[in-house]
Amino acid sequence: MVTSQRNILYRKFHAILGELGLKESKHDLLSGYGVNSTRFLTDSELIDVVERVQNMKLQKLSADSRLRELRSQVLTILNQMGIYATNNNWSQVNAFLLDNRIAGKLLYELTVAELESLRPKLQSIATKFREKQETEKHLMIMN
To answer: Which of 10, 78, 12 is nearest to 43 (CA)?
Structure first.
């Protein structure tokens, strides 16, 4: 491999490590190849390690998109319940989610796993909320 191509791969490797906040883990990544510096990697090993960190970056991006998707779903349910009726009005959302019976955390503090377990809970609450409203509406009409 030409030196300029190796230099491009070095820069790419270090840039991705920086984006992922893994600069301190560089030694751990390289130790699997029996070296402590990218200079000592063979061409194929350098290509392999760059592909590994690129895959790590893609996994992080897909996790971020999953997180945004779940947050959106939670906000949609809260909107249906009238809690997030006005965009950017986070006081009701925060107060609702901070209740330990709901989540005990703010929306942006929730992980993917926590959001996945929160969603069915909120859907159940929303269903009961709608049923209660329908019952009250029915009783008002009947009186």
So the answer is: 10
> In whole angstroms, how far apart are CA 94 and each of 17, 117, 130?
34, 18, 21
Per-residue CA distances from 8 to 2, 59, 121, 123 (Å):
10, 23, 49, 50
Q: What predicted TM-score, i.e. pTM, was given to this entire model?
A: 0.60
pLDDT digits (tens, 9 = 90+) for 2-20: 889 999 999 999 999 999 8
Q: How far is Cα 137 from Cα 132, in angstroms, rounded to an integer?
A: 9
φ, ψ dihedrals at 84, nearest 5°: -115, 55
C-alpha span between 55 and 10 (Å, rounded): 16
